[in-house]
Amino acid sequence: MSEMIYFDHAATTPVHPRVVEVMTPYLTQVFGNPSSVHGFGRKARQALEQARDAIARYLDADPQSLIFTSGGTEADNMAVIGGALAHQEKGRHVITTQIEHHAVLHACEYLQNLGFEITYLPVDDTGSVRMSDLINAVRDDTVLVSIMYGNNEVGTIQPIEEIGRFLQERSIVFHTDAVQAFGVLPLSMRELPVDMLSVSAHKINGPKGVGALYLRKNTAFSPLLHGGSQERKRRAGTENLAGIVGFAEAVRIASEERVERVAKYKEIKETMLTIWREAGIRYQVNGHPEHVMPHILNVSFLGIQTETMLMNMDLASIAASSGSACTSGSLELSHVLKAMNLGDERAHSAIRFSFGITNSVEEAARAAGKVAQIVKRLQKE
């Protein structure tokens, strides 16, 4: 079996060797609890705050506005549930979209059980939210809006600045899940009109099990975890120090390499599409043609079931996915593609290719050629 080509970086990424290197001492030597007052604790605390500073610099944010979490899911839950509960005296109406990650959608379902009313905004066939739908959905009792920055399945980027400015004028708290955008798109919390923003380490070649929530100063918030005064009393529990140190190093590397990475991802995408176009196979690209994440390519190979295509690609040593890793174990149709109303044939034949630092243009060309052969064979059958 030839070496596997990994095109599922939107699900998770390999940990960068530099990240492993900086983490190791914090698993073996600097093991103190950052809340302890003795020398071991102080050394751990110093490393924790240096990591916080590094990530805050990348986000152009105040370090005190960052709350470390166990990942993107916890950050989303904290923002949606913690934000809504803190503002429930003002109202119990929350707005999100039909294409959010399940970490947001299930948090909204939880709020519904508590008596909140949730409006799920539709999207157009490119996966974009229409401003008119948001404007019409806002009510006097709307306290929170959660709209993802870039979609994890089709890569569509939402008009976050326009949405944020509109909500700021109405003093409505705005959260964005930026897990896929982080490290790929430039994000400045001084310029971006959002109150809360979720990020994760394992999407940018950092370790699994660590993420962060950006919480703008003076934004009311109810903590979900209780038991200690860590993270300025906003998230109880001993901090994952080695993970946080690794997260900061992954952010530094992503910051240094971002421009080159994005250029490579765009070239990979164009190379694959050109090969498929020249091969004459039937396919359609899903997502917005321009406002799209550079590392995500969602394609429907018409007439071929997603599972059939994935199995054949796996046999050809190409790893891709049907969409979100959280739901890809089920044969259920993607809620994102369903919301986009693409029609059954496109929705049931969609494959997500997502690129990362281990991929090269040459490798992508080789993979695209193999994919074209598979598609030609299966479209004939």
From TrEMBL:
Can you tell me where the transmembrane regions are? none
The UniProt keyword set, sorted, is: Iron, Iron-sulfur, Metal-binding, Pyridoxal phosphate, Transferase
Q: Name one GO molecular function term.
A: metal ion binding
Reading the lineage from the top rank, the first entry is Bacteria
Reaction catalysis annotation: (sulfur carrier)-H + L-cysteine = (sulfur carrier)-SH + L-alanine
Enzyme class per UniProt = transferase
Q: Any idea where the Aminotransferase class V domain is?
A: 5-364
Which PROSITE patterns does the record associate with it? AA_TRANSFER_CLASS_5
Give the enzyme's EC designation. Answer: 2.8.1.7
Q: Which Pfam families match?
A: Aminotran_5
Cofactors that this protein relies on: pyridoxal 5'-phosphate
Q: Which family does it belong to?
A: Belongs to the class-V pyridoxal-phosphate-dependent aminotransferase family. NifS/IscS subfamily.
Per its record, how is this protein called by name?
cysteine desulfurase
Protein source organism: Brevibacillus invocatus
